[in-house]
Amino acid sequence: MKFHLFKAVTAVLLGVAGAASAGIAYGQERTLRLVSAFPENGIYVQHLQAWIKKFNEEGKGVLQINFLGGPKTMPPFEVGNAVKTGVVDVALNTGAFYTNVLPEADFLKLSQVTIAEQRKNGAFEAINEVWNKKANMQYLARMVEHQPFHLYINKKIDKPDLTGMKIRITPVYREFFQALNANVITTPPGEVYTALERGVVDGYGWPIGGIFDLNWQEKTKFRVDPGFYDAEVSLVMNLPAYKKLTPPQLAYLNKQLQALEAQNSFWTRYAEEETARQAKVGIQTIKFDDATAKRYRDMAYEVGWAAAAKQSPEVAARFKALLAKPAAGNAQ
Question: Which of 26, 167, 204, 216 could bridge 211 with an S-S bond, Cβ 3.0-4.6 Å?
Fold first, then answer.
């Protein structure tokens, strides 16, 4: 049933794409179709919706965005391919959700410099060279940063060892949690609550923020500190659609994208609020001694970059030079 619905939605979107392409040829106002890999009621989409409202108010006659929806419109792991093939124009997505299209997309979690720095040091251009060539996409903007990932579990541990535990993952944490001896299980976010409820998994990886959006706090007992990596949620666009924008449309889009990134300090405050909120509902913090905590965090990056180098040696080496900091420092 879901498959047929997805096919029907895809057919409609392709029809709209043809009409939009015809319109742009005559210099008319262009409307970009945007989908989200994240739920509409979540903080990521709520944050984006405020930006879209302003975008459309100021972009009348030039450029508009039609938000089509989240996972109910399109399965999260199909969104990357939908952007690549032009089924939709733009997506709010994370690299971990479209490694089936672009394995290198998952490398961005390892960034230890801000998107503002990436635009200055050549990283942004390097990202787009890979996204253009390998995924038929333009990497537009990073909307979320300063959101470390954490391990959330329902069994208390006193050291970084997950032997005998079943942990829900996406590609973000696969190698790291496997290095901690976990049995890993991949599921979409929408299935995690039930998996926790039924004991199918003993825990999961997720950023510091967002578990309340999915009600996972009801089934979560512990959060392991420190956090590691940085949740990357970005806007990506179909490359042919991007290249069809007129100079005024492109200028307007870039202006609004930079305004969106300028709001990223919000996520630092949000992380602090979510940490306090988790404590208030009884989620206990597991903290290792300083030396163990450092080894735990360093191991996350060592394993992450090693996996990246194995997947795509040249890209990993280039990205590491632009995105990493010495082990003693971090952007979080």
Answer: 216
Helix, strand, coil shares, percent, the chain, to 5: 50, 20, 30
| Tokens found for residue 1 | 């049933």
Q: What span, in angstroms and rounded, lies between the C-alpha atoms of 115 and 133?
A: 21
Angle at the Cα of 44 (from 210 to 34), degrees rounded to 5?
A: 145
Confidence of residue 22 (pLDDT cuts 50, 70, 90): very low
| CA neighbor of 306 nearest in space, from 179, 181, 197, 204 | 179
pLDDT digits (tens, 9 = 90+) for 105-119: 999 999 999 999 999
Distances (CA, A) of 169 to 175, 183, 235: 10, 10, 22
**Amino acid type, 270:** Y
* Measured CA distances, 294 to 88, 112, 167, 168, 297 (Å): 42, 16, 22, 24, 5
Look up residue 209 and give its DSSP letter. Answer: S
Q: Is 260 helix (H, G, I), strand (E, B) or coil?
A: helix
Q: What is the pTM of this model?
A: 0.85
Q: Are 235 and 16 in contact (CB under 8 A)?
A: no
- The pair of structure tokens assigned to 10 is 């895809």
Per-residue CA distances from 52 to 31, 36, 63, 68, 199 (Å) = 12, 13, 11, 12, 39
Give the other-Cβ count within 10 Å of 276's Cβ: 9
Is residue 13 within 8 Å of 87, Cβ to Cβ? yes
Distance of CA 200 to the CA centre of its chain: 25
Of 227, 232, 332, 202, whose CA–CA distance to 278 is shortest?
227
In the sheet that holds 233-238, the strands lie side by side as 63-69, 30-36, 90-93, 233-238, 137-144
Which amino acid is located at 260 in the chain? Answer: L
* Tokens 């082990």, located at residue: 327
